[in-house]
Amino acid sequence: MAVDTAERTVQRGLALHYEHHPPPRQPDFVDFHISISTPSVLRRWVRPQVVFAVDGHRPFHPLPRPQAYAQFEWGLNWCVSVYMHRFLLIHSAILEKGGSLILLPGSPGSGKSTLCAAMAARGWRLFSDEIAIIDPATLETFPMPRPINLKNASIDVIRRFSPEMQFGEVVRDTNKGTVAHVTPPLESVLRQHETATPSWIIFPKYRAGSETLIDELSPAQGLLDLAGNAFNYHIHGIYGFECLKRLADKVTFAKLQYSDLDDVIQRIEDQVLESA
Amino acid sequence: MKVSPYRLGDLLAAPSRLADLSLREWDQVIRHARAAGLLGRIRAAVADAGLLDGIPGNIRNHLDSAWLLAERQDEAARWEIERIHSLLFARGIPFVVLKGAAYAIQGSPVARGRTFSDIDILVPLGAMKDVERALAGDGWTRKYVVPHDRRYYEEWMHEIPPMQHRKRKTTLDVHHAITPPIGRYPVDSRELLDRAVPLSGWNDLYVLCPEDQILHAAAHLFLEAEFEMAYRDMIDMRLLYQQAPDLEEMSTRLRLRADELGLAVPLQLAENALASNFGLDLPGRPSGGIVDLLFDQVLNSPHPDNQGFGYQLATFLLYLRGHHLKLPLRLLIPHLIYKSFLAERIEAQDKKSREAHAEKLRQMMARK
Question: Fewest Cβ atoms nearer than 10 Å: which of A23, A58, B115, B274?
């Protein structure tokens, strides 16, 4: 990925969150040429805005300038989800520990990013907070350790949970409310070329004040829920469905309800690492 | 991060050259192809040249992704056509599939790796109401357009506002002609329907005859006012020409047919561009008018990052030309004034009043 921008917030965000990312192995070929710029001269000065573009294509409306960095991260996710159909893409947080790779698919508001940030803080290797990238033939899954996007209350939750995590600028009044990005852990970044195959798929649901409940799901139910979170299995046609099915045969499905982060991570580790 | 202009058309004409590209060149090719909507077409060319296995994985990712998407769209288009056919056949309405969906349903080489966003069909003018009713019964509704645009479509254009399927979100353009009937180059649809070719294996389902497919593509690009897909459209047109066993003979037949339909001007422009920019060896033609030069400018800047002042000026002038060809001046001037100065305000008001209306309905329902 190459980024062309004069926006200071984007430059600062990149310097902060991508400081330890190794240089590309093949600098001559770049997957996405992205630019973040002002949509017009006027918008540089009057109610300043920025717009995301990939090869001149602008998939989103311009946003107010303070959201430039968030726009970059969302835009890059968009690029992967619409231009990388060769992979099976699942809307999911995804982390690994001790060889167990778990997917945490969930809609916005399910608490998947919060749980993802908390697990990353407790030594789980971050693959992604947003997209699982899976080879449909082998189910080999590729890490994309990028900043974790936290929203609203979960920003302070994670700050309290793990004061050592590094936060970027907090931006208010976006479409998603207040947002902030958390730098991915160093080890996840340094091991970004180490792939793995999924062993658990857990659908998380945050519920205030609830106990931690982990219930295994049947493969059939799991497959249905998984399909609901797959960005692009339909693009692969019947083969996409077969691929999801192979994945479903290989993993253990569970649904999870939680409110206490320490407790839920302990329970996940007990259950997942135990069975490994 | 400027890109250097890259001749995708030349590469597609001589795909064996794709084997010699460096990573740096591939970087440019992928960027250009993505911007021009030709990634899937490049993938098809690579495969046809037997070069797939030699392409590095990170480049294959982009090519294969575009290919998969195109394959799925192809399949979806065939499926939609099948549904539409069963609706219209039951009512005794024959119809012609146009453009992308037509290439798909014919299994034409033009369809390979080609992505498209909507399905276009042509039906007899007298059947428009029945067609819309039949489609409505299967979940198709008109996309909402503001009153000005509705009038624009219904009174002046050759199609009704786009229809969309309620569940599948597919967009369908129902045409009764291929050019605006009140524009400079009206084409009598009866002529097209007379020569339309029945698709084997189907009852009463047609595509345009090969000449008319080319003329439609030429009219679409060289009489219209939008040029985002212009480069891709030229590549399509070159492939359509290349389907003919004899280029010279095809060109002669096209000229005769264009005279019958009144499309000699767009055909001339298309052939000039094909000969000068896309290496198609067409019989000698006079060229070099101002409109040719403007199209040269547009077709030589396929990537948004190198569309400089010349491109902007050319597209602006061609935009005016395109609208002028669609509508006589007495209608065009009010239309452009509306679009440039009034549309934003009126459409915002329109949206507000529709929202207020919807809110009122909701309250009424709640009270019940």
Answer: A23
